[in-house]
Amino acid sequence: MTTTAARHSDRRISPVFVGILAVTAVTGWATWTGFAEQPGLAVFLFVTAAWVVSLCLHEYAHARTALHSGDITVGAKGYLTLNPMKYTHALLSIVLPVVFVIMGGIGLPGGAVFIERSRIRGRWRHSLISAAGPLTNVLFAAVCTAPFWLDALDGVPAEFRYALAFLALLQVTAAILNFLPVPGLDGYGVIEPWLSYEVRRQVEPFAPFGLLFVFAVLWVPAINGAFFDAVDAILKGLGISDFDTYCGYDLFRFWRGTNEICTAAS
């Protein structure tokens, strides 16, 4: 009985995650209805809370896939509760990605769950565990962009549309960047099982710095411009204009004051 109860508790959704969902719902409602006195603050809270929800789902996807692949320890570690406080590095997993968003409008999840890879057999399973996280961002992006490519924006308030557009941008950038074959990111985790032992041993020391390396490279103007051109092309293909994402980011950074162009279009 005790073991069964423990297993149920290991998989019970955390009140912390429920609280984050509640913040997302309330601030989303405030953005939609215009209830908030400062729409920018409502957009900031809505996008931030929704972004943290996607981070939790990203890590949950890793853990859940690992569980079904043979790592039965993920439950005891709290990874199946969707509680971000249970992650290996709360700073890298939650705080740093939010800072990245504020600084540059880039969605870049950090490393979080520790998978006991020795329990997992088969290279395909190892690759799937790594791919599960960014695939979750792809799914989240599909949900955020659905009103645009389904042409279902009639009656949707401008501020909410801008917020969805910016949130979609974060999910697209997160998916692209995480699939890069850079040590420490999920893209490298996908190909790592197929590399020779010698290559893996040489690359391993660089894994802790992969995330910061990518962020630093994105500060190079030429690379940053090419990257966001690619992101914009994807979003345009899904019906989201540059103007929508620009105004979404502008509203998100409410402390800088709202651009009059976005206000006039609302």
Automatic annotation (TrEMBL):
It is a multi-pass membrane protein. InterPro entries: Metallopeptidase_M50B, Rip2-like. GO terms for biological process: proteolysis. GO terms for molecular function: peptidase activity. Its cofactor is Zn(2+). Belongs to the peptidase M50B family. PANTHER family: ZINC METALLOPROTEASE MJ0611-RELATED, ZINC METALLOPROTEASE YWHC-RELATED. This is Site-2 protease family protein. It comes from Streptomyces thermocoprophilus.
